[in-house]
Every structure is written in C-alpha cells, then in structure tokens.
Amino acid sequence: MKTCPSISALAAQNGELQAAIRTAQKMLAAYGDSSGFTEFGYAQAHGALAESLRILLRALGAEASKDVMQMHNVGQAAPRCAAAHPEDPDPCNGPVVVTILDTFNAGADGCEHHAVRLLASLTGGRPVPRPDAPASIALRIFRQAHHTQPYPWRGERP
Fold it and tell me: Could you give phi then psi for residue 66, rounded to 5 degrees?
C-alpha cells in the first residue's frame, strides 16, 4: 500500500502513529469487504473499523471536536453494548452480563435487553455469562429470546 510521503515521514517519527496505521490496515484487510457477513458480522465489522479510525485520528491529533460531532449528530446517544444492533433504537437496560456467541464462536458482549434481542435474531446462537454476572442470567436470556421475535425493533409480526 502506498502512503503519502508526508505521512510516511510523520509515521517514522511517531511510534503511536505507526501502530495506528498498522491497526487500520489490519482492520481494513479483515473487514473491508462485508458482502458475505451476517447481521452480527456486519455490526462487528462496523465497530472494528470505527474504532481503528478513532485510533488513527487520535494518533494524528485530529480527533473530531464536540462541535463537529454535534453538528453531525455524532455521539449524542449514550454508548451502547456491542450486542445492540445499529438499527435498534432502545437504550441498554443495565450492565454487560453475557457474551452472545454465534455458530462460529464470534461474540458480542451485551446487556440483558440487547442480548435477548440479538439471540432471538440469530440462528444457533448461545449466551455465555460473564464472570461477574448474576446467577442463571444466561438461562434467563435464553428463555426470553425464545419468546422474542427476530429483529423486534422492525415491528414485523411472524
């Protein structure tokens, strides 16, 4: 991959920038083509690419200011767990308590509310409790997901 000479010179002097560039390159290589991704894979790719972009901008000293973020309606919603689908408007209802694994063992940590909704939308998914989670939380999420329609934020009826 070719880089701009001024970026190359800057990266040679800045170890943080070198690491940020390597991270961005790896994330782009891993997630650049999302054509074969499932809903879960797409959300995972979006998160990884967004975070690598933040790291790169921070290393360049070019993070978005609060004014710019407000102008573009970025960052105004409270941060949500990784299990929350980008189209799901509901906020988290508590701390992260489980990891929802898909059939390939890729996982997303989630609050109880979003874990139920993600599990209901996956085929072959399973909840794995976090070490500090309340007893039987994974079983409770599994049961609730059984009674929840897939993609419930869409309002579709089966």
Answer: -60, -35
At 97-145, the pLDDT tens digits run: 999 998 888 889 999 999 999 999 999 999 999 999 998 999 999 999 9
CB 82 within 8 A of CB 47: yes
Q: Which pair of tokens denotes residue 71? A: 């102008």
63 alpha-carbon distance from chain centroid = 20
**How many other CB atoms sit within 10 Å of the CB of residue 43?**
19
Name the nearest CA neighbour of 74 among 83, 84, 63.
Answer: 63
The string of pLDDT tens digits covering residues 75-86 is 445 688 999 988
Distance CA 30, CA 51 (A): 14
Strand partners, 128: 99
